[in-house]
Amino acid sequence: MIFEPIQIPWTILGLFIVFNVGLILTGTVRKIGARVGRRRGIRIYQPYIDLVKNYALRSNFTHGMMFYLAPVFRLSGGVGLIVFMPLIYDSVHFSNFSFAGDAILIMYFMFFGTLGMALGAGEGGVPFSAIGISRGLSQVTAAEIPLILAFLAVFIQTESFSITEIVAAQQGGFLNWTLFTNPLATATAMLAFLGSMMRSPFDIVLAPQEIPIGPPTEFHSSFLGVLSTNRAVFPMAKTILYVNLFFGGATSWPELILKSFLLYMWSVVVGTIYPRFRTEQSIRWFMKYPLILGVITILVLQFG
Amino acid sequence: MSLEDIKKRTVLDPDGREIEIDPLKDYYCAATPDMKMEHHKSSAWVIEKFANWARSESLWILAFGTGCGAIEMRPLMTPKYDAYRFGIQWRATPRQSNVFIISGYMSIKTLKRAIRAYEQMPSPKYVLGLGSCTINGGMYWDSYNTINRLDHYMPVDVYVVGCMPRPESILSGFDKLKQLIKEGKGEGAAKYATDFKWYKKNQKQIIKDWDMPDYNW
After folding, report:
1. Mean per-residue pLDDT over chain A, rounded
2. Cα–Cα–Cα angle for B67, A221, A27, nearest 5°?
3. Contact A59 B123 (CB under 8 A)
4. Mutation to test the A interface, candidates B28, B58, B118, B126, most A Cβ within 10 Å
5. A5-50: per-residue pLDDT in tens?
6. In the predicted model, is pLDDT for residue B23 greater than 80?
7. How far is the C-alpha of B117 from the C-alpha of A116, rounded, in Å?
8. Cα dihedral angle (A15, A19, A20, A22), rounded to 10 degrees?
9. pLDDT, tens digit, for every residue of A129-142?
10. What is the pTM of this model?
């Protein structure tokens, strides 16, 4: 990668677009959810108002250094994903700071925010946070294993750790997508995808009925504002990563937005249909179907 | 927790050393309301106006039903009345809510919890008194176990009359609250900070087993 200063404003613009798409997507999905439940639901721009409101509150109580840093860690996890990942394939402006080994870095960033949040929420002192963290970390770890197996399959298949090269290998018609060249890896990844989207059946971490809000129980005003900024960026970053790895990437913004919307809806549809798992149920589930599928994927790739 | 548990005392730690613990100091903060923060307003008129608009259009209710009026909150949020349309949402923790609905009679036992929850909410925060019980005690006015006037214990922004008020009335109460906030009159938290001593005197008069710090931020 050759660094040029002009990349910085373009990356910030890309981040800004992703952030806005994420917020509108959150509003749209909540609206769809409400319509399914025969309600009118929130206004589509409600996430924006909530965000402004959170930043405009006066109280800012802190419990210590890590409490301050946790939302920052969380946000840098989401922003880091976007910054080091090519958003639009073959685009001079929106390739961001992708480089030869970016896939490895991105796998670190996916876990980074969760760990930072764990430290900060622990300092908040609310027992519900501690329960939420222990549940969240065990669930994310369980979902991460099949996820890494699926990613490894893609890396072995394309013999590259560069997301740009992985997208390049999928160009020239949709039959070249990983979805069709390696359906087993895609299936594994799609199952693992559910685990980190914080939606039913894997939303016990944040379940308001069980452990008031889970890890963010104590976070309020601008702390919560930073966390909800990340809630807009992170799921988008994750879906864009999936679009890049499994669904042929995107050559334009509309294509990217359409693909990530459909991918996001996968977790929404599953969440609407299936009720919430308890932690041990979800871990057992991840260790059963996605993991076995992931191992088969690797074996097929090796000996098939 | 009893009064004995929060007294300052000397205990033996696991290593056999004698240490002094003061739960009120160790577990809670002894600070009183921060007047500067509670009364803070942006110097730019436009920014304060915009902030007030955002605050009024994003009202997060604390999911804490204190009396029989809590039953009216379910139709309020479900398909029949669907308050989500107006930017009203539930929140399960006081740290993230802005509106506290005192839904009906308030027993002395609940008052203690309500005060703790109210003080933990980030300001600016608003209180909506629901039903005649919060205004003058209603049908419980001579009860030994409920309070009569809510605004002696926490500043109330809007009262909604009725026994019980239907969801339509609650929605109209929310409209009134939004109007107040937009006009910059939703300053209950600032009032609470200013008249803190008066509120505490009233609260302690009625809560006999006061086993918490004076201010739970």
Report:
1. 88
2. 85
3. yes
4. B58
5. 888 999 999 999 999 999 999 999 999 889 988 899 899 999 999 9
6. no
7. 27
8. 130
9. 888 888 888 888 89
10. 0.89
- Listed in sequence order, the residues at least 6 apart from B181 whose beta carbon sits closer than 8 Å to its beta carbon are B52, B55, B56, B124, B126
Question: Chain B 98-137, CB below 8 Å of chain A: which residues?
Answer: 98, 122-124
Cis-peptide, bond into residue A127, ω within 30° of zero:
no
d(CA A49, CA B51): 10
Q: Give start-end residues of each CATH 3.40.50.12280 domain in chain B.
A: 43-206
The CATH number of the domain covering residues in B43-206: 3.40.50.12280
* Two tokens, residue B126: 């608003």
Q: In whole angstroms, what is the distance from residue B50 CA to residue A172 CA?
A: 50
Q: Grade residue A4 by pLDDT with cuts at 50, 70 and 90.
A: confident
**B150 Cα to chain A: minimum distance (Å):** 24
Find the mean pLDDT for residues B103-129: 90
The runs of H, that is alpha helices, within chain A are 7-36, 46-56, 65-83, 102-124, 127-158, 163-169, 178-181, 183-195, 221-246, 253-273, 279-303
CA B48 to chain centre: 23
Three-state DSSP state, B126: strand
ipTM of the complex, rounded to two decimals: 0.86
Half-sphere exposure (CA, 13 Å, Cβ side) for B147?
28
The rounded distance, in Å, linking the Cα atoms of A170 and A74 is 31
**Three-state SS for B89?**
strand
Residue A225 has pLDDT above 90, yes or no: yes
Domain range summary for chain A, segments of one domain joined by +:
7-303
Give the model's confidence band at B2: pLDDT under 50 very low, under 70 low, under 90 confident, else very high.
Answer: low
